[in-house]
Amino acid sequence: MMTKRKLFIPIILILALFLVACTSTNKTSTPSTKENMEVSEMTTDVEPNQRPEVNDDPSAQIFNTAYENNQFITATTNELGNPEPTTPADLKERLAKGGLVIIHRYTGSGGSGGESIPGSIDDGQRISESSIEAMTQLGNVYKTLEAPVSSVWSSQYYFVYQHAVAAMGEPVMMNRDLTGSLNFSDTDELERSLQGLRNWTVTPPPAGENIVLFTHQGKFEKAYGYYLNAGQTIIFEPDTSGVPNVIASLSLEQWLDLAS
């Protein structure tokens, strides 16, 4: 009998220790209901604008126009003064220094295939092979001159966006202020957009940077009464006065010559 009792007592002790260990583990790994409520309350108390949000949609900036936007200076006129000034001798140096707003008009469509991107206007036109080559050369001027670019913006029309990407690479952001006027059915919206385009041209870029815009001849003509030819570049040097300051107006060939 003594032998059986001696064996029985250790077994009871082992079982007891096992139960105590299990209970302790459960208490450690599972928060109480009160703790769960406190965590939940902490999460819901965070203000929505404190939560980081990432939007990779290229259409996100489309309606962030320069009309009544306090980040932009308001253009005070719809006239360019002299839209074709004598090209400054130090234009290359100015491009490399930054502080310019550079507008390019696309060269042409005629290509085919490929899906458009979200937020773009797909009228069926696609950039042609010859335009891809021309835009590649256009973009190489920036590289050759080491001209700093803070951002590149394009019309919503997909084939114009294709020109911007072919020239400058990604990312390119689309913006309504650069979209062709034929896409506007609301005359008030069009007027706001034209004012927005003018505001782009009188607002200085970030210090030591250039801003590059790709738009349509018709949109620019409605904004400023000046027609841009295919591949033409017009360069502004904003001085915060609200008056557009054109320092150069170049054909595609003249622009490409800057790389030589």
Automatic annotation (TrEMBL):
Name of this protein: Histidine phosphatase family protein
Keyword Signal: yes
Annotated region described as Disordered, given as residue ranges: 26-55
Keywords annotated in UniProt: Signal
Keyword Signal: yes
Signal sequence interval, chain numbering: 1-21
